[in-house]
Batch of 2 targets.
Target 1
Amino acid sequence: EPEVTQTPSHQVTQMGQEVILRCVPISNHLYFYWYRQILGQKVEFLVSFYNNEISEKSEIFDDQFSVERPDGSNFTLKIRSTKLEDSAMYFCASSWTGGGYGYTFGSGTRLTVV
Amino acid sequence: AQTVTQSQPEMSVQEAETVTLSCTYDTSESDYYLFWYKQPPSRQMILVIRQEAYKQQNATENRFSVNFQKAAKSFSLKISDSQLGDAAMYFCAYSGSARQLTFGSGTQLTVLP
């Protein structure tokens, strides 16, 4: 069964550093997403990406965040200057239709900011 | 904006018994999708079951079924013949015209041997 692959599985970074989280969505999917889950809390939407541009973003997704699809397969989330409160599990997801048939999630990247 | 509410932070069930997890949502849209996701300790998000709002028939997937009440905006998950491997956090989620998921706060399910 096709998978969404995320790397790294765990990243520790110092406050103020830039991090890039990487995702390889399912190859024939058209919609790509990043979600965040702070430990013990609900999963929160960050941003959606379709047709090589951001289609929706939440209030969380401020100027510190950016997304890119630099080639035909990778989808990245960059956090420019990490803060302690950015510590969370970050999930990439992809969908063929943008929702109806479900979203496939990656296994997540656990980001720890120290 | 859509909201999803899970009023049961924790539930427990005896192995082989049946348990129902509750979910309500609020939306003004008529066309949308509802999902239940399972998150085991590994924190992977696993799709359990999905329901299209335009379908009156409740979705079923093996031991998992839903009770979808559109007028009441209720979407509960029933797990029959509970197994130890069902122990996890369960999230109810909504997807509408905005094409992203809005999650509830989750229900932690414990399965007792």
Target 2
Amino acid sequence: KNEVEQSPQNLTAQEGEFITINCSYSVGISALHWLQQHPGGGIVSLFMLSSGKKKHGRLIATINIQEKHSSLHITASHPRDSAVYICAVRVSGAQKLVFGQGTRLTINP
Amino acid sequence: DAGITQSPRHKVTETGTPVTLRCHQTENHRYMYWYRQDPGHGLRLIHYSYGVKDTDKGEVSDGYSVSRSKTEDFLLTLESATSSQTSVYFCAISESGPMSEQFFGPGTRLTVL
């Protein structure tokens, strides 16, 4: 079993819909990252959080440390949000990140 | 955008040949990482560096070596490439390790025939 599990693996929605991508992990962590990988392959860091909630534009990331769960929400989704979204955790005491397999999001106009 | 470049961006080589990939940064970040990305797997850490001449292994380090003689450059070498090393390789940097944001390079697509 992977230490970091994302769901769903694939998600297709219509423009304007509210999107939720989930990340669950089975280890103790000190931080969680959300990344976006564009269709062209480039990877961009969206958020790094260790508690609570962060918001940037239409993107919101939340984390519940006790439940070992994080969500990434996209409000008013747009076709340009189509990408693979990757969750990664820093395992407590470790110097590296462990990555989920990603969620492929497609937003249709 | 963080100043990270990778070279080459694409390479096709034959089994048994040595290959070196270069990651160059202009941000003066202390940490540098090499990952590989394969279908069905998330990004997996090959090696990382926490300073000049300071490196450590990741989860998939077999068959790979690294060197960092300058802050700005982190080299990944496949001593004798195998077909299982066909992958997309990403370099990343961060200012202070996994507790800080990571910035990724554009990736290198390597094909080993």
